[in-house]
Specification:
The chain has 523 residues and is α/β, with parallel strands linked by helices. The chain is built from 13 helices and 23 strands.
């Protein structure tokens, strides 16, 4: 027999301790505790808004026997033959991977081209960035199987529920090895230690059902023809070796493919500058964030997870906010080519490091950057990354400043320990940032400090620059049909095309692009 209990508000001790939860359920339902065979958590979230931290739970209780639950077994996918119709998927990030799965369901064989290496081989190249300061422009934290999300935390929270089924995406991830906890948690998270295994499983599924995956195969340019009625049409792509790959194209490059943006621009592919956000990575001791967010000098105690925060305000008409918050995480170098300095954050599934970090960024709109150049926001990113790189002596070390010194506008005499592997050094981060960014961040930090006492502290550091929050461009497309507004056969998708942000929203966008391509295939 199954009984459901929803909207429970329990202490952490009761919510996370099985014996106490069983006793609570027994009393609430008025049943003998020995009849409880299993309790499934359907939904779970932490409510730390009041002084007493509570856990919101919805659960399913199995009485007398364990009733088989709906598992995450997915509908069978066809195995496509080599002569099946095919489409080219450029990029093996979330948008490309989920587009490929959906193409197979639609009877179209995906040919996935990824400039970087497989998810395991990427590790050595990422280690070289931290240890040697050497950046491989095709294999780094941004490029390679799994895209930028593979080694930057694996957070799955999204607000993109109107565009598709978040549950479908999560079930596919669970079916490929992710913890079933992501189906219940309000802010689901896989972790950078576990996500690579999930990605490999998806890749093998694509190959087992007739798709192809080609690593080290960078797209060079689109193959564009003109129909008899004057319509420009993409019929494939060429790679750097000159090989032609034929088929309509789902373009899922990720947000850092600057060389490809320039190629598309030179080919006359319409694009438009898009707003983004830039700033710094802010790193606190995790114990301090725990004590602030859980309202306790003792921190989180035995049962609660590493605390998260979300900060948002507006300063002089622009948003200032936290981005990609990584409790129990580390700061990582995320440059995607030599001559750049950029940082990001990640955390493993246990979120057990002694640091907490998040991007602290300021909204920048196209009208904030002079000129009418299509690529001006891309250039804006590059200029900021170059300033930080050159200040660090053309290394991957990060300029850093105590948070209070950033607000006060002075150099830090010394710095606390940091998780950033290439190393940090005292610098005027507030001067390296463009003035409007530094000014708004300074005011934002002051407000966040007033809202959360202890948050503005000299025990925290800012390091930079945080620039890869989103694509600097949008590739326009029909909102319903999802193909490019002026070029047939081209389906821009995911973060790189400016239509998504984060793993789940990019995956949904990739699915939708595949459905749209299938609808128009051959027309």
């Amino acid at each position: 027999m199954l009984r459901e209990l929803s909207s429970l508000r329990l202490s952490p001790e009761t919510a996370f301790e099985p014996l106490r939860l069983n006793a609570y359920v027994s009393t609430t339902l008025g049943v003998d505790i020995n009849r409880i065979r299993q309790i499934d958590v359907v939904k779970r979230s932490i409510d730390a808004r009041q002084r007493r931290v509570m856990v919101n739970l919805s659960i399913r209780v199995h009485l007398d026997e364990i009733t088989p639950a709906d598992d995450c077994t997915l509908p069978e996918m066809p195995v496509l033959e080599a002569d099946a119709p095919q489409a080219i998927v450029v990029g093996a990030g979330p948008a490309g991977l989920f587009a490929s799965l959906q193409l197979i369901r639609e009877g179209i064989r995906p040919i996935m081209l990824e400039r970087g290496k497989d998810v395991d081989s990427r590790r050595a190249d990422m280690a070289a960035i931290a240890r040697e300061g050497r950046v491989d422009p095709d294999s780094n934290y941004c490029f390679g199987e799994g895209g930028a999300g593979a080694f930057s935390d694996g957070k799955l929270y999204t607000r993109s529920k109107k565009r598709g089924s978040v549950e479908d995406i999560l079930k596919i991830l669970v079916a490929n090895g992710a913890s079933s906890d992501i189906l219940a948690d309000a802010h689901p998270h896989i972790g950078s230690d576990r996500l690579p295994g999930v990605i490999k499983s998806i890749r093998e599924s694509i190959k087992a059902h007739g798709g192809e995956v080609h690593f080290g195969t960078a797209m060079h340019e689109l193959v564009i023809t003109t129909d008899s009625d004057g319509t420009r049409r993409v019929t494939g792509v060429t790679d750097r070796s000159g090989r032609v790959w034929n088929g309509p194209v789902i373009l899922a490059t990720g947000h850092s493919a600057r060389d490809l943006y320039r190629t598309l621009y030179s080919q006359g592919v319409e694009m438009e500058p898009k707003g983004l956000a830039v700033g710094v990575r802010l790193e606190h001791p995790q114990r301090l964030i725990d004590s602030i967010m859980y309202h306790s000098p003792a921190g989180r105690g035995k049962y609660l997870p590493a605390a998260e925060y979300s900060m948002l305000t507006r300063v002089d008409g622009r948003a200032v906010y936290s981005f990609c918050m990584c409790p129990g995480g580390v700061v990582i170098p995320s440059a995607s080519a030599p001559g750049q300095s950029a940082v990001n954050g990640m955390s493993a599934s246990a979120r057990s490091s002694r640091w907490s970090n998040s991007g602290m960024v300021v909204e920048v709109l196209p009208e904030d950057v002079p000129g009418d150049d299509t690529l001006k926001m891309l250039t804006y990113q590059e200029q900021l990354e170059k300033r930080f790189f050159e200040d660090a002596g053309c290394t991957q070390k990060a300029p850093a400043q105590r948070m209070t010194d950033f607000v006060a506008g002075k150099t830090s005499r010394d710095l606390p320990a940091s998780s950033y592997a290439p190393g940090v050094y005292p610098a005027r981060v507030d001067k390296l940032l463009f003035e409007p960014i530094a000014r708004r961040l300074r005011k934002g930090f002051e407000e966040f400090g007033r809202k959360s006492r202890g948050f503005l502290t000299g025990d925290a550091i800012v390091l930079g620059a945080e620039t890869r929050t989103s694509s600097p461009l949008r590739i326009p497309r029909d909102r319903e049909e999802m193909h490019h507004t002026s070029i047939a056969g081209l389906y821009p998708a995911g973060e790189g095309a400016g239509w998504a942000g984060g793993i789940v929203s990019a995956a949904i966008d990739g699915q939708n692009a595949a459905r749209a391509l299938a609808k128009h295939y051959g027309k």
